[in-house]
């Protein structure tokens, strides 16, 4: 087989990192449902000691993810938020984090309501404002974290510019690439150090798994100011080694059954993403012309303020959009309770179309003032456009919009 670096994405999602099982020749990666591994003598084993540390099913998935994102290594965790928490564990009391002001509500909650109590300090800012970003950087700033496009306002942030400034400052830059998947966007190529995914979404794609991952461009790190627990402890040297240490030390990694499901889901990532993008463009254009809709936010529309940047930075525009209804909270509730084909539910990125109300559902943990400031209003609706027939989706929205 040719070098996988030369292969196209559609080929890599089927083959990268996946070899027939060395023991049996099974074409599909087996589910290695084992917690432990026999050793022939103490410390002598075949590379696997205990499944918290390493598991062959998870190892194949990690290898494939690293190839798809163009990273050196990947690590899989029990959820997107568990992966985020692993990154936060790199840092110590007093370290400062600059995060985008528009983030998934659960990420905001982890930063503000959990990590803050462990002594990390956060500023949530509009990272599109370069002066503000530079003014917010401090000597203690160790991490810059953002999503692009953002959840739920679909703002597009300049990965190359932000990661360049973070690097100049000596801070790590993490991009949450959940909305795009590696099919549409490659943050590591644009300068990010780590890509984080909630694989619960597009990468698995079938709404039957909760999982997250970190894909890492490896590099040497400075030793931490204080070592964990014991002064004789030698912290791992590189970014990957430190995160791998944390994955094992904390124990929030992905299990083999879920890893198998994600390996299966990934095989159709390219065809799914293509269809998500085509359907979303049709739905966004339909909504933009609809008299009951005030404004549509979809990076593929020329009216979107980030359209030009999105066209350079992304290879497509994805399946996520939000729109403001011409109505109040009551009318928005009625609309959301009337749709039939769209399921009213949190989450996104599955083959089926979902719809939700960010202020009441996914972003309820963002304080009302911040919600208002970033535009999460009572008439804002978020849509994850699935891969059904787009005409059926538009007909469903049209029927429900008649109630507004
Ligand atoms: O749910 P979990 O796998 O832990 O992933 C958290 C997460 C992280 N980043 C982004 C951009 C996300 O959208 C999410 C999860 N989001 C939803 C559940 C949602 O409906 O937006």
Q: What is the structure about, briefly put?
A:
By secondary structure, this protein is α/β, with parallel strands linked by helices.
Describe it for me?
- There is one protein chain.
- With about 400 residues, this protein is an alpha/beta fold.
- It folds into 2 domains: about 10-265, Type I PLP-dependent aspartate aminotransferase-like (Major domain) (Aspartate Aminotransferase, domain 2, 3-Layer(aba) Sandwich); about 270-400, Aspartate Aminotransferase, domain 1 (Alpha-Beta Complex), CATH 3.90.1150.
- About 35% of the residues lie in helices and about 15% in strands.
- It has helices at about 10-15, 55-70, 80-90, 105-115, 130-135, 160-170, 180-185, 240-250, 255-265, 270-290, 305-315, 330-340, 370-375, 390-400; strands spanning about 75, 95-100, 120-125, 140-145, 170-175, 195-200, 210-215, 295, 320-325, 345, 355, 380-385.
- The chain has a 7-stranded mixed sheet, sandwiched between helices. Strands 8-9-12-11-10 form a 5-stranded mixed sheet, covered by helices on one side.
- α6 (about 160-170) links the parallel β4 (about 140-145) and β5.
- The longest helix has 21 residues, at about 270-290.
- The N and C termini lie far apart (about 55 Å).
- About 50% of the residues are buried.
- The structure holds ligand P1T.
- The site of ligand P1T has 18 residues, from α3 and α4.
